[in-house]
Amino acid sequence: MSEKKRAPFREIFGWAMFDFANSSYTTVIITVAFSVVFPKLIVGDEKSGNLLWSYALSIALLLVAFSGPILGAIMDFSASKKKFLFASYIITVIATSALYFVVPGEAFAVTLGIILVAVSNYGFSVGENFASAFLPDLGPPDDLGKISGFAWGIGYFGGILSTGLVLALTTPHDMTNLDGVRLIGPITGAFFFLAGIPTFLLLKERGTPRPLPAGQNYLSIGFERLKRTINEIKDFRDLIVFLISFFFAYAGLAIVISFAFIYGDQVIKWDATAQALMFVLTNISAAIGALLFGFIQDRIGDKKTYTITLIVWIVAVTLIWGANGLTEWLNQTFGSNLESKTVFLFIGVLAGLCLGSTQSSARAMVGVFSPESKAGEFFGFWGLSGKLSAIFGLLSLGYLQYMLGLENAILLCSGLFFVALLINLRVDEQRGKKMAREHKGE
Fold it and tell me: Average per-residue pLDDT in the chain?
């Protein structure tokens, strides 16, 4: 059996550009801008707004959780990964741009906002699954860490450019500048649309469609293959254990991604300058971390890399929770005059190093544990694990912050990362790779 070759760089670049494009959505809408605008301006009450925000994201993720594996099965059978990816891209662009019509203070603004955030987040999330399913086609297993890390690194630069553009054209985000606030969605949608074009020009569809059996359609095939995959995945013990670990890790990540800037606004009480600095510094550190850990990953292994990132997350989230107390201690001990927002910025840089690398190493692990003929379906289960965990994390945080306050509730993340770390110790990386290599495709 010949060694699998790496795809041409232009194709890898085209695939990576989808990370560049979709980072505009997750950074601007989910993390930096619209996530802060929604509770503060559209809902008008922080605790209720935070809870409704977690509902909107959870609705989308619930839909992804149940549709992802079915769509992945259909996608593999029909060899139509590119078509599915394009459909998710268009859904996200249209729903994101339509946030223009969510006007603070107008009737039904909250309901419309929840619907559009749910629809756009659904498109974005299934698109992540569809794009990830291309990864095993792009190179041999030993190269997937570098390829995945390269894409995550480029993605963070996409986040920096798109968010810089949005902040420059739409701030201040308050009731005195509603015209600017309304442009957050359209600018993000336009960026996503334009930046995603190279993906569809350069990325190849390598699969071969299979003829439909008599009396069946793609939906029935999807359910049939899903049932078969559920039976087969039981044999991939290390993939299952890893997906359970990823469930808890991604629950923590979903909270960080969706509430970090809300935390800065409501707990740290930062100003616009600190917000902009946090955005720039964390994205730069995240890009560096994704690229750096991508190379480390291919040298020390996916499992060890993933483990290191979980340990860093436990430390970082604990420091975030104690940022105000840590600032007071530093000032008393060293006679300094630090502000909480400054300490929070430094912690953000530490956390940023692992923001992309945790997800990149996880994606690569699923890639090397997946037989090529089952990549779409297994990445569908990866998406299922991630989406169900995000629902669990977001709703748990939403309710905890409503009862205990956001500052105390954020400590939940450390516990989630710790559980993920313990479960990951049970993964045998070499055995998992061997199972994927020896699987007999259909």
Answer: 88
Rounded CA-CA distance 178/40 in Å is: 13
| pLDDT, position 441 | 54
In a domain, 115, yes or no: yes
Residue 71, phi then psi, degrees to nearest 5? -65, -35
Q: pTM here?
A: 0.77
Q: What is the CATH number of the domain that holds 289?
A: 1.20.1250.20
Q: Are 387 and 62 in contact (CB under 8 A)?
A: yes
Q: How many domains does the chain have?
A: 1
Tell me the percentage of the chain whose pLDDT exceeds 70: 98
> Does any domain span residue 153?
yes
Helix (H, G, I), strand (E, B) or coil at 328: helix
Burial 402-423 (b: 16+ CB within 10 A, else e): eeeebbebbebbbebbbbbbeb
State which residues form the domain around 399.
9-438
Does residue 67 belong to any structural domain of this protein? yes
For residue 224, the model assigns a pLDDT of: 79
Residue 3 within a domain: no
Q: Retrieve residue 48's tokens.
A: 């209720």
